[in-house]
Write a structure and sequence with these properties.
The complex is a heterodimer of chains A (about 200) and B (about 600). Chain A has about 200 residues and is of the alpha/beta class. Chain A contains 8 helices and 6 strands. In chain A, helix 1 packs across helix 7 and helix 6 packs across helix 8. By secondary structure, chain B is α/β, with parallel strands linked by helices. Chains A and B meet through helix 1, strand 2, helix 2 and helix 3 of A and strand 8, helix 11, helix 14 and strand 22 of B.
Chain lengths: ~200, ~600
């Protein structure tokens, strides 16, 4: 068994927490796990890519090689586009369509592509997956910081490597108790979004 | 044996604690930083942030001479700074086990340069090294290095790369044994005094030559150790092309082999010096080998030399030809190279990459540096001055949209470079912009040089009381050291004692800061402006701020959408929407520095 996950996002989106939840669940299920992050030096706002590699045997490279990821979670569409070549042709992507503009795009030095352009570029590659507005869903639940939990819930609807209830239970052990109800709702909402939007 | 998930830096710290390390010293630098912090958490281990890596190495060596196991921790830039000491401790040798962690950052992912410190430590200083291929191996090598250092009386170095330090994996680990050897200092001037002294016993030869001979004589002992080392091995498979994986290069090679789908003849090398017997056994019968290493052709050249000495005809490919000469390896790069080598073709030119709008590094929203940068930018816009920069969060002031500092080299370079520009005859004002941790690292001597030589510059110290860029390590200007509260050494007081004219400002107040910088510019000699404000990200969490947070918003009736605030200022919370500037409330920390940026007064 080999399962490679990459999570592409922007600093502050809870990318690393999501990868830790999955890594811990995999370890407790008895798998070998290797992970790492590639990130800019900025505390916030930089590009962050988490790699989680799960296997029942030896794992060598801490980085998921190009074309090997079984699932790509894109917490932000431009970041998903930046790393889409990591996804295997048999893999699945789940991409949050809510953009976080870059400073250079704000300044008009760069162009931030439209969501339609990003969707089209990714579809042209013949890859399979889901686009959903996890940020909007999180805002509707009353807290934009729930975006990563919506995405984590959506992940459990496309991958059966780990049981959804195990992932949710692990997440709840890692966050403050006062957020448990909101987190559970965001998780279920994310799960539901896959079957609805698929 | 127990098994746990650990980051590479956790595994190295754990191994050092198990090996009975007593003194650990370092200076923060990605990717090695966490090792020192973590060592400080083990009972009975003294850990410190020294002011720079050379001093960290000196502290650790002194502990070794006092019969206690010790470790010095740094990134590659730090090893450069410590090289003067390295080139002496290699000649003296050590007493208790002394391990040097020299972490490299291939590709310069989090560094000002990319380099290979194996060249400094092994090729130049002739010291033994381990190059780990996994987190588990980093653990095992660190532990082994302490024992072997003691056995050979030499510094042993571990050269992890970013993908080891900051990667996590399952690690089997052991028990911490308390090391209870006495702290005794036995004077041995013949070893520990490095000087051009005449050695009577050696027929009047000078000591540097004698100690050099001692170090050279050690090499055979080291080669024998590496021959028996468990960190080098061969994986046999049929074929005329062999592959050598060094350190993390082996991990990428094994990954490439898995994707390739057939076993390859592999020699895994993780030690310097090389296990020459193992290498010769591997290459005999092969027509070609490809060496994968980070980042210079160190093993490749040693292998070529070995083949030459043994009259072996072999095509040796690697970083000096065939592979890309610069940048990080990856499983995909190695796979491409394996396929090309098996087919006898050159390494293919990479397809041009499609640019995706970058997320450039900037200051956090609420950071005092943004106020300082915009104030200084306003001053030099008017007077045509030049700003030499230094390492730290403020160095992002060199990028869009600030475009302020004209140079960035290494720790402390800003001050000597600033007065060098003036000495060349440049007529307009010159500013050196340096952070507080860097000021203590290597800025003090530069400041003394500037004052001593009659420089005419304005040095601006961004005093935020922490080494923020690497994750908030304290320094001599902070209210604590790694262990306890201290009375901070105030940069302005030091500068004043040296004879500089000292000015102070709070960079959250942009007008005041610009006025103070202009006042300093008008004065003669070396002026030091201390721009003091606590790091928002670190101290804000503790409820300590150097500004009074308030609600900041754009008055849409006044904003004409000129975009100056976005184009010149670059706060992540400010964007242009539908022709008007807008401040995203969830991203704004209420520092209100942006208020002074809008010339129309639309930001309120």
């Amino acid at each position: 068994m080999k399962f490679d996950l990459v999570i592409a996002g922007v600093g502050g989106q809870g990318n690393i927490l999501a990868s830790q939840v999955i890594a811990k669940c995999a370890m407790e299920a008895g798998y070998n796990v290797v992970n790492t992050e590639t990130k800019g030096a900025a505390q916030r706002g930089g590009s962050v890519l988490s790699h989680v590699r799960i296997a029942d045997g030896e794992i060598y490279s801490p980085l998921v090689p190009v074309g090997q990821a079984d699932v790509l979670l894109g917490f932000e569409p431009l970041e998903a586009l930046r790393y889409i070549n990591l996804l295997s042709k048999d893999g699945k992507f789940i991409i949050n369509t809510a953009p976080v503009p870059t400073i250079l795009a704000n300044m008009k030095v760069d162009e931030y592509p439209s969501t339609e352009q990003i969707v089209a570029t990714i579809k042209e590659k013949g890859l399979d997956g889901y686009f959903l507005d996890a940020t909007k869903a999180a805002k509707e639940l009353g807290n934009i910081l729930l975006t990563n939990v919506v995405m984590l819930g959506a992940f459990t609807a496309v991958s059966d490597v780990l049981a959804p209830e195990v992932i949710l239970a692990k997440l709840l052990t890692m966050v403050n108790e006062k957020f448990h109800e909101d987190d559970s709702r965001a998780f279920e909402l994310g799960r539901g979004m896959i079957s609805k939007e698929g | 044996m127990q098994k746990e998930f650990m980051l590479g830096n956790e595994a190295i710290a754990r191994a050092a604690a198990e090996a009975g390390v007593k003194v650990v010293a370092g200076y923060p630098g990605t990717p090695a930083t966490e090792i020192v912090d973590l060592c400080g958490g083990y009972p009975g281990v003294y850990a410190e942030w020294s002011t720079n890596e050379k001093h960290a190495f000196e502290v650790a060596t002194a502990a070794s001479l006092t019969n206690q196991r010790a470790m010095a921790v740094m990134k590659h830039n730090g090893t450069n700074a410590a090289t003067d000491f390295l080139m002496h401790v290699n000649f003296t040798g050590v007493r208790a086990g002394l391990v040097l962690i020299s972490a490299d950052d291939p590709g310069g992912l989090s560094s000002q340069c990319e380099e290979d410190t194996r060249i400094l430590i092994h090729n130049y200083a002739h010291l033994p090294m381990f190059d780990p291929s996994s987190v588990q191996e980093a653990y095992a090598m660190t532990k082994a290095a302490f024992a072997l250092s003691e056995q050979t009386e030499l510094v042993f170095a571990l050269r992890p790369v970013m993908r080891i330090n900051h990667a996590g994996g399952m690690v089997e680990y052991g028990e911490i044994k308390q090391d209870s050897r006495p702290a005794e200092f036995v004077i041995d001037r013949k070893r520990f005094v490095m000087s051009a002294v005449v050695e009577k016993e050696s027929g009047g030869e000078l000591r540097p030559k004698m100690r050099h001979r001692w170090l050279n004589a050690k090499q055979d002992e080291l080669k024998a150790l590496m021959e028996a080392s468990p960190f080098n091995w061969t994986e046999a498979a049929p074929g005329e092309t062999g592959f050598v994986g060094c350190g993390i290069g082996y991990a990428f090679l094994k990954e490439a082999e898995r994707i390739h789908g057939a076993k390859l003849p592999i020699l895994k090398l993780s030690t310097l010096p090389l296990p020459e017997g193992k290498v010769l056994d591997f290459v005999r019968g092969l027509k070609r080998v490809v060496v994968f290493e980070e980042v210079e052709p160190v093993v490749e050249n040693l292998l070529k030399q070995l083949c030459f000495e043994h009259k072996i005809v072999l095509e040796v490919l690697g970083r000096s030809e065939f592979l890309p000469k610069e940048g990080e390896l990856s499983a995909n790069l190695v796979l491409t190279a394996v396929k090309a080598a098996l087919e006898g073709k050159p390494y293919p030119a990479p397809a041009p990459a499609q640019y995706v709008s970058a997320r450039t590094r900037t200051q956090c929203s609420g950071c005092s540096h943004r106020g300082l940068l915009i104030a200084l930018k306003e001053v030099v816009r008017k007077n045509g001055g030049v700003v030499t920069g230094d390492i730290g969060c403020h160095d992002a002031g060199t990028f869009e949209p600030m475009n302020l500092q004209a140079t960035i080299y290494c720790m402390g370079s800003s001050i000597p470079m600033a007065y060098g520009v003036k000495k060349a005859g440049f007529a307009k004002p010159v500013y050196a912009l340096i952070g507080d941790s860097t000021f203590f690292h290597n800025g003090l001597t530069g400041l003394a040089s500037a004052i001593y030589n009659g420089g005419d510059i304005t040095v601006i110290v961004a005093y935020n009381s922490t080494t923020a860029m690497t994750g908030f390590q304290p320094h001599p200007g902070s209210p604590t050291n790694l262990r306890q509260p201290i009375a901070p050494i105030e940069p302005g007081a030091v500068a004043a004692a040296m004879g500089a004219k000292v000015f102070r400002c709070n960079p959250y107040n942009v007008e005041e800061t610009a006025r103070v910088i202009e006042e300093a510019t008008a004065a003669e000699g070396v002026k030091v402006v201390v721009a003091e404000a606590l790091c928002y990200l670190k101290f804000g969490r503790e409820g300590k701020l150097s500004f009074t947070p308030r609600k900041v918003a754009v008055d849409e009736a006044v904003c004409n959408g000129c975009g100056l605030c976005v184009r010149t200022f670059g706060c992540p919370a400010i964007t242009l929407k539908d022709g008007k500037a807008t401040i995203e409330p969830s991203g704004c920390n209420g520092c209100a520095v942006c208020v002074s940026v809008c010339k129309r007064g639309a930001i309120k």
